[in-house]
Specification:
Elements (H helix, E strand, L loop, with lengths): L2 H29 L5 H6 L2 H24 L4 E3 L6 H8 L1 H8 E3 L3 H11 L4 H7 L8 H10 E5 L10 E5 L16 H26 L5 H41 L6 H48 L2 H4 L10 H7 L3 H9 L4
Antiparallel strand pairs: 1-2, 3-4
Helix pairs in contact: 1-3, 1-10, 1-11, 3-10, 4-5, 6-8, 6-9, 6-11, 9-10, 9-13, 10-11
Bound molecules: zinc ion.
Length: about 350
């Protein structure tokens, strides 16, 4: 990625974060009966310039936060519901609510690839190690897991948990991968494996004249997907930061509090949480669409590539140096690390 694009990519979540903080500050002023336009009027040219410049390092930090959480399974933002849910339902029942299993995008692309009639030779050649995922492997994870929304009869939201139709391993009776340690391990293993295979396919295509465009197209789509993800992180972080700041400096360690202050804090905090939730959902559904689109496009392009005569017959492999082998093997530490860091990238 060239540095201009990288700077732009990092500055977007950073600027969203700063703008959200300003918007949330206006909400606090509204709830305490002050004029919210004071905030905009109070911003001079120096502050504005400093804000734009601060957007890049802030965005960089937000990206790290986003990638840190980009794992096969992790903890949901509903973590705060953990204790009430545990008291009500017990740990086993409550766990799926506060931890989540990320959708296996690698398996999605592989499954689509086989559905469209992608040639198995390409997968075998790009992924040198055994096991090589076949049609069944890619289909299985979808057969095994089904997404369930957190609240019954609501439209799909970001609060999804995966349920199991059949066990991921022998002798398991768990209904959600999140409740069983072995299921979580199995799922994470598959998640990383499927993703590494997709990256190997893209690397393989990217190293050849006919397939180079596939990788570039994929990278552009992936940038949008992750920019939306980081924007979502920026909104949530700004809301948590704004509420946390008020709580710390105005309620806990501020001047003596009376009931009016507490009411203002609760009203303002709820408004900010609602505002952030609405924006989060809009960005989330845009991201879901970007992901579906990218899955179909990548699978279709790889499928086309796999049927090119040279690729199908393996004649394109007779290149000196073995660069293609390295790119596809997933065994080189650098390549493997890059892939797992960008797992789902
Ligand atoms: Zn299990």
């Amino acid at each position: 990625m060239d540095s201009a694009r990288q700077a732009l990519r990092w500055s977007i979540p950073g600027l969203i974060f700063v703008l959200e903080l300003v918007a949330f500050a206006a909400v606090w002023r509204l709830t305490s009966g002050d004029d919210p336009t004071d905030i905009i009027d109070g911003i001079g040219p120096t502050t504005a310039l400093a804000t734009i410049l601060a957007g890049i390092p802030l965005g960089f930090l937000l990206y790290q936060l986003y990638y840190r959480n980009y794992r096969p399974y992790g903890r949901s933002v509903l973590l705060f519901l953990r204790y009430p849910l545990e008291i009500r339902h017990g740990l086993r029942q409550a766990r799926p609510y506060w931890s989540f299993v990320r959708r296996d995008r690698g398996a999605d692309i592989l499954r689509r690839y086989y559905q469209l009639g992608g040639h198995p030779n390409l997968v075998r050649r790009a992924w040198h190690e055994d096991p090589v995922p076949d049609r069944e492997d890619a289909a299985r994870i979808r057969d095994v897991t089904a997404a369930r929304t957190l609240f019954p009869n609501t439209r799909p939201s970001s609060f999804k948990v995966l349920t199991l139709d059949e066990p991921l391993h022998a002798g398991c009776s768990a209904e959600e991968p999140a409740v069983c340690q072995k299921c979580r391990y199995e799922y994470a293993k598959r998640f990383r494996w499927n993703w590494a295979v997709i990256m190997a396919l893209l690397d393989y295509a990217g190293n050849r004249p006919d397939g180079a465009a596939i990788k570039l197209e994929y990278a552009a789509g992936s940038d949008i997907y992750h920019a939306l993800g980081a924007a979502r992180t920026a909104i949530a972080t700004a809301a948590i930061g704004s509420i946390g700041y008020r709580l710390t400096f105005h309620i806990l360690f501020g001047p003596p509090v009376h009931v009016g202050h507490l009411v203002q804090f609760v009203v303002g905090g709820s408004l900010i949480a609602l505002l952030a939730y609405a924006q989060y959902q809009v960005i989330h559904s845009a991201r879901e669409q970007a992901s579906t689109n990218l899955t179909i496009r990548t699978a279709a392009a790889l499928c086309w590539f796999s049927h090119l005569a040279a690729v199908r017959n393996g004649r394109d492999l007779s290149r000196p140096g073995g660069a293609a082998k390295r790119a596809g093997s997933g065994n080189g530490n650098g390549a493997a690390d890059r892939r797992s860091q960008r797992a789902g990238g």
